[in-house]
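A note from the maintainers: we've had questions about how concatenated examples are separated. There is no special marker in the raw files; a new sequence line simply starts the next protein. For clarity in this README we add a label.
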Amino acid sequence: YLATPWLASPHLQTLFLGIWGRPPSVTYRRQLYTVRDGGTIALDWLLASDSEAADGSSCDGTISSDDSTPIVVVVPGLTSDSTAAYVKHLVFSMASNGWNVVVGNHRGLGGISITSDCFYNGGWTEDIREVVNYLHQKYPEAPLFTVGTSLGANILVKYLGEEGGSTPVAGAASICSPWDLLVTSRFISRKLVQRCYDKALAIGLKGYAKLHQPVLSRLANWEAITSSRSTREFDHHATCVVAKYETVDTFYRKCSCANYIGNVSVPLLCISALDDPLCTREAIPWDECRQVTSLTQAHYLKHF
């Protein structure tokens, strides 16, 4: 892989798609799914037939229970949902290649209200577990695959490690995973440019929190949450309180997917940028990855 000369900087590459990128036009079919604790998840579908219909052919927009077309579940990154440009690019590309694609939006994202006292976080795997099991039961003939991006990749790999050989997933891909949340947290607070990213992420998290102020203000200190200047401060005042972790470091250590990679039993493609401005190469668990026979590594530039 060779970067475009005028986009050789990983910072420019990371910013380019979000500012100037022109995502494909995608019209999702929304399905609301209620998980066991009462939470609501928006499942946004783009079927292979939808992509064909865009070229002028007809489709009925449904999947039969005996359909054997592969299904791929996309797990977005931090505060991202199916409307994010990179998600649209990913979804459209896979649907155009004959896959039925569904974006599993995180709780409280995709325009959906929080309907229980549970919020998603970087180690929350219950939602992807329920969605995967539901899809496998409803479409037993369809091979099931998963793709996670950024924090969504951490959630996905952690889930795969927790499940081991019990998951119905046939294969997966991890793109730009932070791997070790504690190492990554320290990295983005190290230098000025990384602190700029950290501040931007914190702003996004506070925006997410404001969407659900009635619930979150009941569970945690609202003034402390809104005054958070970094992701670590937000996790201290919000994530750890709601998810009941003793400290931020405890949360980061327990939820890092690097701890679970050794137990992944399905084919897993891991793509990381060695010069990722957010997810440092220092966090990549090289030795653990080498011991996983089902894992393939690839490297490229920038962060989603």
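[label: protein 2]
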Amino acid sequence: MFKALLVNEENGTYTAEVTDLDESLLPEGDLLVKVEYSTLNYKDGMVIKGLGRLVSKYPHIPGVDLVGEVLETNSERFGVGDKVIVTGFRVGEIHWGGFSQLARVRSEWAVRLPENLSGHEAMAIGTAGLSAMFGILALERHGLVPDEREVLITGAVGGVGSVAVATLASLGYRVAASTGRPEESDYLKGLGAATIVAREELSTPGQRPLESERWSGCIDAVGGVTLGRVISQLCRNSSVAAVGLAGGGKFEASVMPFLLRGVSLLGIDSVNAPLALRETAWRRLGSDLPKQLLASMTSEATLEDLPEMAQQILDGHVKGRVVVKI
């Protein structure tokens, strides 16, 4: 038997509670993992509350991230006792996830826990931090280097934004952090932000297709109107990495910045990223994200806390990262 947070649906009503389950109920997979930690993401909040039609079959165990020890394996890549991280591939959506003491997963979804990260640190990073690093890597591939100009991070108080701010600042970039929570300005400056940008500066449509060149690059976790506005303010030959849609899935922008400034819009897929990219991103996070800053943006929760915290993260009231101790 093992404990897990089980979500049920009956006549359109969703419930979530910690339950004892038999191991025989676990789905198919070539790795059986004893889960040590998971983490709470926005998507987990949606699954727990039954939003977005992300889950097709109930009962269901959420948790898009997990780290733990391999108990059983039919994979040539991993042996019993190996520590692995599992993210993406719709784990926690169409496949039972990490809010559970045991998880059976496919080995191609897993990467080995880097030597420079603990399991707790890996889940403090989680899919949100991994997405931030995917964005940084994409911007670097398109020419981003530290200089006197500012790199913009939108939704900066959230998980993606917090990791992006701390990592880029540690790499020598001048970081501008955009947020709708001015009371968190000291938190963002503590992570390394040089400038705090009020959400309202970016959340209303601009009047011109080309505004003053302002950003040497951007990691955007907001989408919507904000993304369109950022594109109009990018410096020549710079890029924005789109990693989220907290502000909406549609945006309006002019083609003028692309034609007259050579800017780029880079899509970040954190769900189906190839193995080599995931391994590179985890190594970079282990070396480039200061551990003390990671600790300062991290809180801890239990399985029993998650039903209440799910609504909090959906309402934008969760700061930084939440590690779930299993």
